[in-house]
Amino acid sequence: MPELPDNVVYRRRIADGALNRKIAQTNVVDPRILAGVEPHRFDEVLSGQTLTETHRHGKHVFAKYGDETGWLAFHFGMTGKVEIVENGDPSEYAYIQLHFEDGGHLAFVCPRKFARVRLIDTPEAFLEEKELGPDARRVDVEAFLEQLEGRRGSIKGRLLDQQVVAGLGNIYADEALYQEGIHPATTVPELSEANLRSLYDAIQVVLDAAIDVESDPTALDPERFMLPHRYGDERCPDTGVPLETEQVSGRTAYFSPARQSPPA
DNA sequence: ACTGGCGCCTGTTTGC
DNA sequence: TGCAAACAGGCGCCAG
Length: 264
Known about the structure:
It is a single chain. By secondary structure, the protein is α+β, with helices and mostly antiparallel strands. The chain folds into 2 domains: 4-130, Alpha-Beta Barrel (N-terminal domain of MutM-like DNA repair proteins), CATH 3.20.190.10; 141-255, Orthogonal Bundle (Helicase, Ruva Protein, domain 3). The protein has 8 helices and 10 strands. The strands form 3 sheets. Strands 1-6-7-5 form a 4-stranded antiparallel β-sheet. It has a 4-stranded antiparallel β-sheet with strand order 2-3-4-8. Helix 1 (4-17) packs parallel to helix 7. The structure holds a DNA duplex.
């Protein structure tokens, strides 16, 4: 699920529910979810620590522990999520757990195991190492244009490239392209600067709307947005024509053939 | 340097 | 109805 809006929700969840609670111990149910650190080391580092600060960039959420020690980095893959549990046992698939002294715990849940938890020095250094692009919601339009300068591939492929801009995933990229009437397979050079400026605006509108509904795409206004129809009648909310799909950059792209003409 | 394609995992949906 | 195949809101790695 997790694209930028989901990460907004998860960061808030951690900020509201996990800060300033002393970690008694950790439980790593599946060590494959930990990247670059062994479970015993992970536990050694975090036990006795307290999360003090959070940050989000694109599809990563960061949580600082201790005074000057380091940060946790969460990436949610396809099916990851974070839950704060006050009472009761961890839910199924809670492969990494931070248990607080007061009895509650943070559960990092990821049935498909594509998600990863890391220990990093700082978010800045991590973003640089991964060469991630600017956050899709904080980037300004000029920097957005610059990131697309000289690109040749499909606009959808570029929007999904986290090194171009960080945060967009399969469904919100489709939605932004729908809003702007751009077929997902259109190449970047086929788009005018005006097209790209409008697309930038559409991305902001789509992300804001998604955040407003806690990143539940089916809860978006069905009159304005395509996404609710992707999971429903599969018809264009504007024209009523059936939505079509096509593989673009290895992902299924939904689009309205009535509004988004394929490239020549 | 860029780009598209494949494989990683497993639960759920689809289709014969 | 039952089972196999296809699919899924992502990304690292590879070859062209």
